[in-house]
Amino acid sequence: MKLALHGGPPVRTRPWPAWPPACPEAHPFLEAVLARHRWSIRGEFTGTPSLHTDFCAQFTRHLGAAGSLLTTTGSAALQLCLEALDIGAEDEVIVPIYTWIATPIAVLNVNATPVFVDVEEATGCIDPVAVERAITPRTRALLCVHLHTSVANLGALRTLADRHGIALIEDCAQAAGAAWDRSSVGTVGTISAFSFNQEKLLCCGEGGAVVSRSTDLLERVERLRSDGARRRRDAAVIGEYEMEDLPGLMGINACPSDFQAAVLLAELPKLAGRSEMREGNAVVLDRALSRIGLRVVETADRTTRRAYCKYVIRRREGDFSGAPTSAICEALTAELGLRFSQTECRPMHLEPLYCPASKRRHRLSQAYLQGLSLEGARFPRAESHYSETIACHHRLLLSEEDDLADVVNAFEKIHLASETLRPPQASSP
Length: 429
Ligand SMILES: Cc1ncc(COP(=O)(O)O)c(C=O)c1O
What we know:
- This protein is α/β, with parallel strands linked by helices.
- Helices cover about 35% and strands about 15% of the residues.
- It contains twelve helices and 17 strands.
- The protein has helices spanning about 25-35, 50-65, 75-85, 100-110, 130-135, 155-165, 215-225, 260-290, 325-335, 365-370, 380-390, 400-415, and strands at about 65-70, 90-95, 100, 115, 140-145, 165-170, 180, 185, 190-195, 210, 230, 245, 305, 310-315, 340, 345, 390-395.
- A seven-stranded mixed beta sheet has the order 1-10-9-6-5-2-4, sandwiched between helices. A three-stranded antiparallel beta sheet has the order 8-7-13.
- The two termini are about 35 Å apart.
- Bound molecules: pyridoxal-5'-phosphate.
- Pyridoxal-5'-phosphate binds near residues 75, 171, 195 and 208.
């Protein structure tokens, strides 16, 4: 049958669940922020705690962490994790080559050097064997990313970090709701960052959080995030600021407004139910698509809950008549009316957005820039993951099980007609 991409009838015309979701539960929280005349934790105390404080208390409880702090973005949260650990010039941080650019950019922003390593074949997350080889006397931290749907190998990474006396930072931007060995991701490492941007599993437009089991680190994060100030330890007084200035640690303002906290307070109670639904649907899709030759992406041993920030599956090299993955994604988009792509995360040596020398502040010295160069670098496992990955936003997994049949039908239709997706062969002379 003719593919929708080539003018044939599409497999599906009905809409998919929307994301971000309609969130009527947020209205009373948003109205409360307006009514309290206090739109930020940095505003004067008006008699009731900021929603910011309420959300952090609930998020901390939800994760089973020692504490959490809201930030403007996940990118800011990552940078604050590094600054809280006092990582800076001359330091190295080991980072997976395959991630979103915000991960290594946070390292650059504190003047440290990201040392890139390849990922595991099965999961696409940082490879502990490659990490061990990359450790030097300058290594201060290893920064793992729980990518797409997979939890990184936290057991091996934590052992390595402990053995070498370095910090383990978890980038949980894509993994809210995931758990490893019955602990929420973000509570296994030394310190962790979450993102609440519009695409994420827990979202408020733009936002982030730092989580840690160390109250000392969290105290540093709070001050680094709030222009050096921290929440008063004594009772707040109406008309006075609840944040008190303390000398000795310079920060920036990375505090989000209470409007973000209001949406998050309404969304948090839905996270667990949605995670369960996404995981159930992903298992159904994985099973059906592996029957037609696609490869399921795995997660670390002892993962007790996967979080599906994207639905990802790998095509096999040469399958689909050797059609490029981008053409398969385009064909799926046309059949289903939902965007499929090769994911926004790319290996950094193939990522045009990763260009440290484009900013003067990263041109610290010739030696520093040379240390950042990825020219000619090869990371074979990340390259094959990226080139074989077919990804779709997680709203796909909020559908009913019946809707998933459309996805399987679209893959099957494209598989059968894949000859028509092959780029035209150059004619012989
Ligand atoms: C792995 C990863 N790290 C960090 C970030 C940065 O989060 P934010 O967009 O909230 O700054 C993202 C966001 O897409 C991400 O996917």
